[in-house]
Design goal:
about 50% helix; flat; mainly alpha; PiggyBac transposable element-derived protein domain-containing protein; single chain
């Protein structure tokens, strides 16, 4: 099994243009089902902030750090709100922009 993983790892080829995605590929196609205030959003950060408000991020951060202490009290993670924002942003980006899988 270890040999199979090494072979798969060597087969992965990333191209410099793999992250370039056109505006047309990411454009909204149906605005009818969205609330009116979200349709006025122009920037990705505004869209992110619509769902992840200033109230929810400290709560997620607090619970993440609490879990970290419960799992490994000798080495807490001390995650910041900016790190939570970055993580969630990366998760959203990866769900929208589909890149070649490293597991295929």
């Amino acid at each position: 099994m270890l040999k199979e993983k090494k072979q798969r790892k060597e087969e992965i080829i990333w191209l410099d243009d793999s992250l370039n995605v056109s505006q047309e590929d990411n454009a909204w196609t149906d605005f009818r089902s969205l609330p009116a205030d979200i349709c006025e959003v122009d920037q990705p950060y505004q869209f992110f902030s619509y769902f992840f408000t200033k109230d929810i991020l400290p709560y997620i951060t607090e619970l993440t750090n609490l879990f970290s202490v419960q799992v490994r009290p000798e080495k807490p993670a001390n995650i910041s709100e900016d790190e939570i924002k970055a993580f969630v942003g990366i998760c959203i980006y990866m769900s929208v922009i589909h890149l070649p899988s490293t597991r295929s």
